[in-house]
Amino acid sequence: MIRIGVIGTGDIAGRMAETLTGMVHQGNDTICRYAAASREYGKAEAYAGKHGFEKAYGSYEELLCDEKVDLVYVATPHSHHYEHVRQCLDHGKHVLCEKSFTVNAAQARELIRMAREKKLLLTEALWTRYMPSAGILTDLIASGRIGAVRMMTADLSGNIAWRKRLLNPALSGGALLDEGVYVINLADMVMGDEIEELTGCPQMDPENGVDLQESITIRYRGGKMAVLRSSIIATGDRRAVISGEKGYITTDSVNNPQVISIYDDSRSGIPVENILVPKQITGYEYEVEACVRAIEEGRIECPEMPHEKTIHIMEIMDTLREQWGLKYPCE
């Protein structure tokens, strides 16, 4: 049984707790909701009590000193991932770290180097990489149903700037690390990583200096292109369209697809097939299951989200931020 500790008790940590509870209620005996930690003991105690965790700690260090903790889920802001993951590894803990993995690729490389040296699992909780929908999309494209893929568009936009951390440069706020990371990952899954040209056009917040929204264009070897959008100040359709020579595929959502539709080249606008994604608890269960498998098999990375992919995506975002002149205080 893998005893899970959670660092940070905000919204996304609550979502993970809901997931773990659902897994237990479904009879999953490979995990244990073991410990939660916050910088304030009262918050950790309330979280643990609400979600059925056995222990509550008023500091991250206390949780990490608990020898019973096997796997730590890091649910703190992007700006603190490097520090907190490093702490976890120093204490010999396996780590599932929320996206974006770190603030930049240099931090990601250093943490991955540490994990490899210590032979500990370290993986990014980019949930779309672990979902069944990822396999469905990959298989559809490989099957040739829509012919060779030439173009894709994807949007992940929501009017969520009321979340104060997203406008705070000290917490590595902005649209790119929070929303853009999803569309970039989807493009990588569909188009591959042979990038010839990468450009991004942002709208920056004049007050705080973070990116409020952006359009990203990626041109790949072989005549393929991706046009991606992300925003924290506008509501978008949050869909993806993957266009091939003989048809196209759509997903009803970039970051949690429920229906994947296939269209032919008849221009009827009517799908020839709709594929329903398997029912889920929250969608986070797949990354937890992947971690359990990896730990049991003695792996230091999950095949669904290999270290090289985490670094590659961070490098893309580094390049974009360099174009925009966006640097965070923690860098």
If you had to describe this structure to a student in words, what would you say it looks like?
The protein folds into 2 domains: 149 residues, NAD(P)-binding Rossmann-like Domain (Rossmann fold); 148 residues, Dihydrodipicolinate Reductase, domain 2 (2-Layer Sandwich), CATH 3.30.360. The chain is built from 9 helices and 14 strands. The strands form 2 sheets. The protein has an 8-stranded mixed sheet with strand order 8-9-10-7-11-12-13-14, with helices on one face. The protein has a 6-stranded parallel sheet with strand order 3-2-1-4-5-6, sandwiched between helices. A hairpin with a 6-residue loop joins strand 8 and strand 9. Helix 4 runs parallel beside helix 5 and helix 5 runs antiparallel to helix 9. The radius of gyration is 20 Å and the shape is globular.
